[in-house]
Write a structure and sequence with these properties.
Number of strands: 5
Distance between the termini: 37 Å
Structural class: alpha+beta
Helix content: 10-25%
Number of domains: 1
Number of helices: 3
CATH class: Alpha Beta
CATH superfamily: ANL, C-terminal domain
Length: 112
Amino acid sequence: MDEDGFIFIVGRERDFLKCGGTRVSCKQLEQQLLGMEDLVEAAVIGMPDELLGETVKAFVVPRQVSDDVRERVACYCKEHMSVQFIPREIVIMNALPKNAAGKVLKSELRSR
């Protein structure tokens, strides 16, 4: 907090996305994705975009892998998310990479 009483977030900057001028928490988008009963895990990262600033890239782990899981996730997102937060890319995975404490390694996801 500065001398005027303003609070600044200085850590975990990468846990927030700025899509189309709106800031949103990655955790909030992940929770929205997990509202879909077909998913076990979800992680979201931001990808650079010339027009919007960032776009959403989602990594999801379905309960059962099927040919249409990506389309079902996309339909779910269109019904339950604001337009600027709908993932532009959905990556289906068997498991999300995690550290020893069980935290998702988003740095590994960014390199994919």
